[in-house]
Every structure is written in structure tokens, then in C-alpha cells.
Amino acid sequence: MKQNLFRENLRKFRENVNLTQKAFAEQLGINVTTYRNYENSNREPDFDTLLLICRKLNVSVDTMLGSTSSYSNDLIKLCKLYNTLDSRNQGALIERAEVLLELQDGRIKYSSLQSSKNSP
User: Fold this and answer.
1) What is the pLDDT of residue 5?
2) How far apart are alpha carbons 101 and 103 in whole angstroms?
3) What superkingdom does the record give (predicted)?
4) How far apart are CA 104 and CA 68, in angstroms?
């Protein structure tokens, strides 16, 4: 395993979902000291634990191990912003993103969006 890349990615993806080492270790069902050893490159997780880590962080094993290009800074920033919102506002963000896609694809025109905003 590429220890430095794994360690860096593990920390980065855990922080992206706003979890402490202790909270994430609890989600994994492992001792926090064991988890800290993963992030400090003192120990490697077994295969089943690696799969669980990736599943919990919603990251592929390839990405976690540094075999593919990592996420862009903009995507990481968007994920952090999304994770700080409450569920109502997360839904609103998704709805707005869908509208932006429709605008981008030309399925709706900006002028019709503006006129619907001015309607009661």
C-alpha cells in the first residue's frame, strides 16, 4: 500500500465529511488508537476494514490508495459546504443544482426562470 498517499487521503476524506478520528473509529467499530495508527502510517487496515472505510467515506479503493486522480478542490469545497447544511437546505442545494443543469442544457431559458420568480 502506498502509505503516504493512503494516510493523506484517509485524513482528507474523513475531514471532508466533518468527522473526528474518534467519531469515525466508532462508525467503523474499531478502537480510536487503531484508527490513528492508520492515519499515522504505523499500521495498515486489513482488506475488510479498508473496504468499510471506503464505503463509509463514499470513496473508491482506487482513489483512497491514490491509484486514480483525486477530487478537484472545487468538488471538495462543495462537499464540505453540503455537509454543513441541514437536510432541508441540502435538498434546496440539490434542487438549485438541477435547475443549473437545465439552464446549461438549454432545457429552460433564464428569462422564463426570472418571470416565474416575479409571479405570485
Assistant:
1) 87
2) 5
3) Bacteria
4) 28
Q: Which domains does the chain have, with CATH numbers?
A: 3-65 (1.10.260.40), 85-118 (no CATH)
DSSP states of 102-120 as a string? HHHHTSS-HHHHHHHHH--
Does residue 5 contact residue 66 with C-beta atoms inside 8 Å?
Answer: yes
In order of 4, 65, 103, the CA distances from 75 in angstroms are 22, 19, 20
Q: Is the pTM of this model over 0.85?
A: no
Buried b / exposed e over 84-119, threshold 16 CB at 10 Å, is eeeeeeeeeeeeeeeeeeeeeeeeeeeeeeeeeeee
